[in-house]
Design goal:
This protein is of the alpha+beta class. The chain contains five helices and three strands; from the N terminus they run ααββααβα. It is globular and about 75 Å long.
């Protein structure tokens, strides 16, 4: 076999390996999205609407009296230049407006930490802890 033929065969083998890796990655991403559809939706919507430099979507449902795989209680940490000069209440409204569908269809609680990059840096990148659940009406 010629050198060109060997290189072509080697390139085909490498492409096949890369294709397998990409397929497995795509498969696990789809699987993850199916397992956490609300969290995924929140992330996609906030990234699209606010363009954060840092975003954390934390499912805190396990801290509450809900079934094991629930997606009902979330904390979002959104750091964006878009928040510069914007009062905290308006930042929260922007997040709430962006997630209106989720809040109307199953998300029971949403804690919002909306910061500018300067505020985020000043905090040392620390996320405030959520208070313990008091059991809702069972207090």
């Amino acid at each position: 076999m010629s050198v060109t033929g060997l290189l072509s065969l080697r390139n085909s083998h490498v492409l096949l390996k890369v294709s397998r890796v990409l397929f497995q990655s795509a498969k696990s991403t789809v699987s993850f999205m199916e397992e956490t559809p609300v969290k995924t939706s929140i992330e996609l919507k906030l990234r699209g609407a606010i363009k954060p430099s840092h975003l954390e979507v934390i499912n805190e449902s396990h801290m509450h009296n809900v079934p094991r795989s629930s997606e009902t209680h979330f904390k979002v940490v959104v750091v964006a230049e878009a928040f510069e000069g914007v009062p905290l209440i308006k930042r929260h409204r922007l997040v709430l407006d962006t997630l209106k569908t989720e809040l109307e269809s199953g998300v029971h609680a949403l804690s919002i930490q909306a910061r500018t990059p300067e505020q985020w840096e000043a905090s040392g990148g620390q996320v405030s802890q959520s208070p313990p659940c008091l059991g809702g009406s069972k207090r």
